[in-house]
Amino acid sequence: MMILTDKKPRVNIEGILTAEEIHEIQHHIEHYPYPRAACLDALKHVQRRNGWVDDAQMNAIAQMLSMSLADLEGVATFYNRIYRQPVGRHVILLCDSIACFLMGAETLAEAFQRELGIQYGQTTADGRFTLLPICCLGNCDKGPTLMIDEDTHGLVEVASIKQLLEKYV
């Protein structure tokens, strides 16, 4: 006979998260009335190490925050800057909002895909770039706009793509 319980098996978080990550997450937890409120801070911090958050790390974070994995996954997938699969060293986010679309974002996206030899959601063979769409970067007056890592680039033209990519060697 199987007994169902709401108890989750405990995960040994050491070896999954670094001592520094554990310390930092605990530090964030102390700043909120409920541990789960630190989930976005924890996800961002853990992502800094490898550029994405894997399943084992998700389990460890959920355990530290006393929240279900499903709830944490909901947060991670809601925010488009938390990556749940490996990404390149540089993530290119191309705005596809209506304002950027009207300013040529679709043509720009096609040019990036040709230049990089990948489609949206893919990473170049050398692991240098991942190309992703994003619904809005809040830079509508300078469309088409994109972000590479934390750098916002507005009024981007197809002719400037190679020069722009060379900055991220």
Task: Report what the structure shows.
This protein has helices at residues 19-29, 39-50, 55-64, 69-78, 98-102, 105-116, 161-166, and strands spanning 90-95, 129-134, 146-148, 151-153. The protein is α+β, with helices and mostly antiparallel strands. The chain has two domains: 19-78, Arc Repressor Mutant, subunit A (Orthogonal Bundle), CATH 1.10.10; 90-166, Glutaredoxin (3-Layer(aba) Sandwich), CATH 3.40.30.10. The chain has a four-stranded mixed sheet, covered by helices on one side. The relative contact order is 0.12.
Give the name of the CATH architecture of the largest domain: 3-Layer(aba) Sandwich
Count of individual domains: 2
Strand order of the largest sheet: 2-1-3-4
Oligomer: single chain
Number of helices: 7
Query: What would you report as the Rg, rounded to the nearest angstrom?
Result: 19 Å
Q: Give the CATH superfamily of the largest domain.
A: Glutaredoxin
Distance between the termini: 59 Å
Helix/strand-derived class? alpha+beta
- Which percent range fits the helix content? 25-40%
Query: What percentage of the residues does DSSP assign to strands (E)?
Result: 5-15%
Form type: elongated
Secondary-structure element pattern, one letter each: HHHHEHHEEEH
CATH topology of the largest domain: Glutaredoxin
Model regions low in confidence, pLDDT < 50 over at least 5 residues:
1-7
Largest sheet: 4 strands, mixed
Regarding CATH, which class of the largest domain?
A: Alpha Beta
